[in-house]
Amino acid sequence: MSEVMTSDLLSVAMAAAAEQLESVIDSLIAVPPGPEARVFEAMRYGTLNGGKRLRPFLVLSGARLFDVPDALALRVGAALEMIHSYSLIHDDLPAMDDDDLRRGNPSCHIEFDDATAILAGDGLLTLAFEVLADPATHPDAEIRCTLATSFARAAGAAGMVGGQMIDLEAEKLEATPELITRLENMKTGALISLSCESGAILGDAGADARAILRDFGYDLGLAFQVTDDLLDVEGDEANLGKKVGKDAAAGKATFVSLLGVEGARREARMLVDRAIARLEGFGKDADAFRQMGYFVLERRN
Amino acid sequence: MSEVMTSDLLSVAMAAAAEQLESVIDSLIAVPPGPEARVFEAMRYGTLNGGKRLRPFLVLSGARLFDVPDALALRVGAALEMIHSYSLIHDDLPAMDDDDLRRGNPSCHIEFDDATAILAGDGLLTLAFEVLADPATHPDAEIRCTLATSFARAAGAAGMVGGQMIDLEAEKLEATPELITRLENMKTGALISLSCESGAILGDAGADARAILRDFGYDLGLAFQVTDDLLDVEGDEANLGKKVGKDAAAGKATFVSLLGVEGARREARMLVDRAIARLEGFGKDADAFRQMGYFVLERRN
Asked: For the segment B245-289, what is each residue's pLDDT rounded down to a tens digit?
């Protein structure tokens, strides 16, 4: 009973954060007059599309641990969501994963065209750093620079971009749990981990707190990926807003193909347990993070 | 006679700067072990390919005006060159300008593949901001943030990315000198202008000096584009390392198609004269910038 309550309260909190976040992104991407308007429209299409806003919610939850105003956390959350959205736009391209559907709608390159989608992704990635470096994000420029370098490492070739490269190379490699873990830690874990750590950066917390939240985020991110693989096997297309069974059809190695459905479920549960155990020192203030762990295990989309 | 001397000295100075720059980029893009190596190799391929390094040379020239150490300017120059290179990698893709040849070599997507080229571009754009925000680029975090926001504005949807969007839309629009000027100011001018201004940012020069060098850079950048259009008509393929006659074959509006060859030559000369006149207050220290004006008028590739 108490978990149902928790889960309901979490949904309300996430929906409220998502609404605030969309309003921030809306104000950060204004469409200008002139023929360049098209790329701005594609940038809006790729970000203002009703995602779960998991990453911004994690930033907000972390920021509240360190008494950082929501307004700052929402800008960092917007930057994270821009980078997440750009990666989806580029990953969906025919030259990459060739996905026509994203969150139940035509992918950006279907709604616009391939060239516009490439440019929209480039524009969003660039805008994320403009937002981070702007004084409105934090009065202390050292903190803004720490955010920018942390974002660049998580999103770049040593992080998300490198993870997508491994994903494309993976069919030539021997699939092992170690390879898939490394791939997913880079491709999605680095950005989710940074989402959990960002509040501590904004709050100028010590290296210890940052490391704990970063590790929490890697566990949470990997659990999220394991349940993603499970949803591709067991999920409902209408709920998910994307096709299911894609991994198996593509002969792609996933946590489910390597560990089986039950093994993958155990792995997700273990990761969430470990993640939550890391939060011991934070007391009740970190309940939003703990609830996110349960959310990941129970999610249906 | 004195112009030939100038031009020779400039070539020597540019070659020396290019060598230093390549060594900085080389150290900033180390190939790791593991299957993500491929994207790092593509990033190196797209940047360490013997470009003219015009932009880093402009940063160095500006930095010397304000007694900024070369080591800092070279890092900013490397970031500029990463952004310039990423834009070429993405522009060359089949979905965009579909160019197989770049600087006399196979384009990145030909040497690797489309997906790797998209990721290499993404990785370079991200790395540029990592370099800018790193304390090694300048001890003052406010200045690093100013660099990052200036770069993002010049490179993003309100600058270079928006210019490429207009370029793709241009065939649907009425070609006028105003449209082409706006297109080129966004697509290439903003980054060249920023190259000229960056030294003043690093040197914490006042708003007046920054504005003068920014305006100088826009004139120089537009002159560069006009001579680019002229080289597409009159240039030598072997010298250029790319095909000529592409604009006319594509029915593309250029300064040459709008103004004629003689008109375009006059326009380039006018722009360089105006650019150099802007430097009046800087005295002899700004000779490198003045020489760049003549270089643009005389260039053969």
From this structure: 877 787 888 999 999 999 999 999 999 999 999 999 998 999 999
Nearest to A115 among B43, B95, B123 (CB): B95
Contact A157 B119 (CB under 8 A): yes
Q: Which of A51-60, A99-108, B190-199 has the highest mean pLDDT?
A: B190-199
Whole-angstrom Cα distance, residue B164 to residue B154?
A: 12
Tell me if A116 sits within 8 A of A109, measured CB to CB.
Answer: yes
The answer to whether the predicted template modeling score (pTM) of the entire model surpasses 0.90 is yes
Structure tokens at B185: 């100011």
How far, in Å, CA of A152 to CA of B79, rounded? 13
Distance (Å, whole) CA B54 – CA B58: 6
Report which DSSP code applies to A242: S
Q: Do B116 and A165 touch (CB under 8 A)?
A: yes
ipTM above 0.90, yes or no: yes
Among B40, B83, B126, pick the best mutation site for testing chain A contact (most A Cβ within 10 A). Answer: B126
Residues recorded for chain B: 301
pLDDT per position as a tens digit, A178-237? 999 999 999 999 999 999 999 999 999 999 999 999 999 999 999 999 999 999 988 777
The region of weakest confidence among A164-178, B179-193, B268-282 is: A164-178
> Are B156 and A95 an interchain contact pair (Cβ–Cβ within 8 Å)?
no
Q: Do B32 and A145 touch (CB under 8 A)?
A: no
- Asked if B157 and A126 count as a contact pair (C-beta separation under 8 A), the reply is yes
B129–A148 CB contact, under 8 Å: yes
Distances (CA, A) of B237 to A294, B103, B246, B301: 62, 10, 11, 9
Q: Rounded to an integer, what is the distance from CA A238 to the centroid of its chain?
A: 21
The shortest CB-CB distance from A35 to any of B114, B133, B173 is to B173
> Please, are residues A120 and A129 in contact by the beta-carbon 8 Å criterion?
no
Domains identified in chain B and CATH numbers: 2-298 (1.10.600.10)
Question: Which phi and psi (to 5°) does residue A105 adopt?
Answer: -125, 165
Dist. CA B99–CA B109, nearest whole Å: 9
Q: What is the DSSP string of A42-107?
A: HHHHHHSS----HHHHHHHHHHHHTT--HHHHHHHHHHHHHHHHHHHHHHTSTTTT--SEETTEE-
Q: What are the residues whose beta carbons fall under 8 Å from the beta carbon of A27, sequence distance 6 or more?
A: none
Longest Cα–Cα distance of chain A, Å, equals 55
- Chain B contact set for A113 (CB, 8 A): 95
Q: Are A290 and A276 in contact (CB under 8 A)?
A: yes
